[in-house]
């Protein structure tokens, strides 16, 4: 594993880097994505009536049962609802149980400073990660004080340069806000506002295989030309697809698994903790 050009002393990482330098690895990578846990400072903190620590625990237990040893775990924003240090400390403690690399980045509810304060030095905030035949590029779409997303010039330049630097690697690009409309009027109003700039860069590079995001608390699996477009359920409350205004779905919290094959193809699916009963306030008009 080569993380943002920093060498690791770990033997497995060295072996993967050697395979990468010598040619494409024929080993698939198994990745787990979780998103939008919306943790709070308080242990009994809730979102729309659901205890978000309890729902995250249920999803992590399900991952542990189904996929105990992923190659990496990706957390795609809105880790905290209140931006508190305590929420990020809680998140770090819970996800470190897997013993694999875990990568975080911000969503619109997150606080960059608090997140950095907890995760700095752990490797969780790396922007470019290379494993086997794949490259992961993690972007920050948080626009302070806004619900919708925006990618700064610095983020877009990082993306363009990382894709250009390793055209031999299949690339998965991940961020928080959705870059395409999803036929959900109220959510489409708070997606990624400068999506055209993002997609222009994506279209320049033939090595992009997947765009992966959170934010919308529902599942999406579609294609844009040769690029897979994937969104994933929240580990807490779900939003109703195809809704004009704010609406809560009755589906259970979940996660996405991805098998990234050496030929660039992707096998993926969503698993839900539907064996657990959760309390949700379906009468809520927003959050």
From TrEMBL:
EC number: 3.1.4.53
InterPro entries, A to Z: Calcineurin-like_PHP, CNP_phosphodiesterase-III, GpdQ/CpdA-like, Metallo-depent_PP-like
Domain Calcineurin-like phosphoesterase: 31-218
Keyword Membrane tagged: no
Region (Disordered) residue spans: 1-22
UniProt keywords, alphabetically: Hydrolase, Iron, Metal-binding
Gene3D superfamilies, per the entry: 3.60.21.10
SUPFAM superfamilies assigned to the protein according to its UniProt record, in alphabetical order: Metallo-dependent phosphatases (SSF56300)
Any one GO MF annotation of this record: metal ion binding
NCBIfam families: PRK11148.1
Protein family per UniProt: Belongs to the cyclic nucleotide phosphodiesterase class-III family.
PANTHER family: CYCLIC NUCLEOTIDE PHOSPHODIESTERASE CBUA0032-RELATED, PHOSPHOHYDROLASE
Protein name: 3',5'-cyclic-AMP phosphodiesterase
Annotated source species: Alkalimarinus sediminis
